[in-house]
Specification:
Layout (H helix, E strand, L loop, with lengths): L2 E6 L4 H11 L4 E6 L6 H8 L3 E3 L6 H7 L5 E4 L3 H6 L4 H20 L6 E6 L3 H4 L7 H16 L1 H4 L2 E6 L1 E2 L14 E2 L7 E5 L6 E6 L1 H14 L1 H4 L3 E4 L2 E4 H12 L3 E5 L2 H22 L29 H7 L6
Parallel strand pairs: 1-2, 1-4, 2-3, 4-5, 5-6, 6-11, 7-10, 9-13
Antiparallel strand pairs: 8-9, 10-12
Helix pairs in contact: 1-9, 3-5, 5-7, 11-13
């Protein structure tokens, strides 16, 4: 029997990774859900065999129709889009959470559904014992709780996917606040100013465009192990100076890590800077994420994922080398 997976955000980084991975698997079809089926990304997926359609993620009825007849759903939502439109961080978090729960509610109404994969995040409040909240993490984590409490049948079919820090942000013009930059009149030296002490450790998910697809494909292949569990996409866990050392090795540029205060980072970068500063400041108190849900984590070993299938920090930066400077 051929199965179908509906992929929210199929032309984005996470959804695109899932769509491309599942298009290569015999016995699976991909139904890509996107805003613009005539866009370049949608057309590229269609040319590879994906069925592309639009749906309104704020409308349960629209999403239920989009999910008709599918056996699996991949759900991802976007806090940063709402923040970028001028919403307060908590309002943006509430908006994202509302959309995420609407999608889950729609999926719960699909009788053919066997597996739901939700891209979520751990609660910063839980990680820091209520000391340092992070809106984009905490609001999303509450959706997990709502699914478990209000949609228990869906929860039993759900793999909750955690993604670490995106290494690609170091090469992204859209995320300039995370890029190292050249110090004027320094002879070509770079600095990386981030609002965290240097010895804090960042969980890094590696290449989103590859690794998310690897993990979701494996979760769908092993539903007996992954449903009802958390799956943690992480290839590296490194300090800020160690991340920058790898960046320097790849780029060929000398660089120094310069901690900056959260207040100054917000003054430079606005609401996005404030949110990142809150995440980094919270991260100074974290143990690794998989300590948060003992007994509820499904490991890559359990899913049969081999390290050579994944793209880690250094390998990804090497692929992005021309965009680093």
């Amino acid at each position: 029997m051929t199965k179908t997976i509906a992929v929210i955000g199929s032309t984005g980084q996470q959804g695109g990774a899932v769509a491309k991975a599942m298009l290569k698997i015999d016995g699976w079809k991909v139904r890509g859900i996107t805003r613009n089926v005539k866009g370049r990304g949608a057309q590229a997926l269609a040319s590879e065999g994906a069925e592309m359609l639009t749906a309104d993620i704020d409308d349960v009825e629209s999403m239920t129709k989009a999910f008709e007849g599918v056996q699996a759903v991949f759900c991802v939502t976007n806090f940063w889009e709402h923040l970028g439109r001028g919403l307060d961080a908590d309002v943006a978090g509430e908006k994202e959470a509302s959309q995420a729960f609407s999608i889950a509610l729609a999926a719960s109404k699909v009788p053919t559904l066997e597996h739901y994969v939700f891209s979520t995040l751990p609660s910063a409040l839980d990680l820091t014992k209520c000391q340092r909240p992070v809106p984009h993490m905490d609001h999303k984590a509450r959706v997990d709780d709502r699914i478990r409490q209000e949609l228990p049948e869906l929860a039993a079919k759900t793999t909750f996917l955690w993604l670490g820090w995106y290494a690609a942000n170091m090469a992204s013009d859209a995320m300039g606040l995370i890029r190292p930059f050249e110090l004027p009149k320094s002879g070509g030296k770079y600095i990386w100013m981030q609002p965290s002490k240097g010895d804090a450790l960042l969980p890094i998910c590696g290449d989103v465009g590859v690794n998310v697809g690897v993990y979701v494909r494996a979760a769908l292949k092993h539903p007996d192990k992954s449903r009802g569990k958390y799956v943690y996409v992480r290839t590296d866990r490194l300090s800020f100076p160690d991340i920058l050392k790898i960046w320097s090795e790849v780029s060929g540029r000398d660089a120094e890590y310069v901690p900056i205060s959260p207040h100054a980072f917000e003054a430079l970068w606005g609401p996005g800077g404030k949110e990142m500063a809150m995440q980094y400041q919270s991260g100074e108190l974290w143990d690794d994420w998989d300590t948060l849900k003992p007994g509820e984590i499904c490991t890559p070993e359990e899913l049969g994922i081999k390290s050579e299938e994944l793209v880690g920090l250094k390998q990804e930066l090497e692929m992005l080398k021309l965009k680093l400077l």
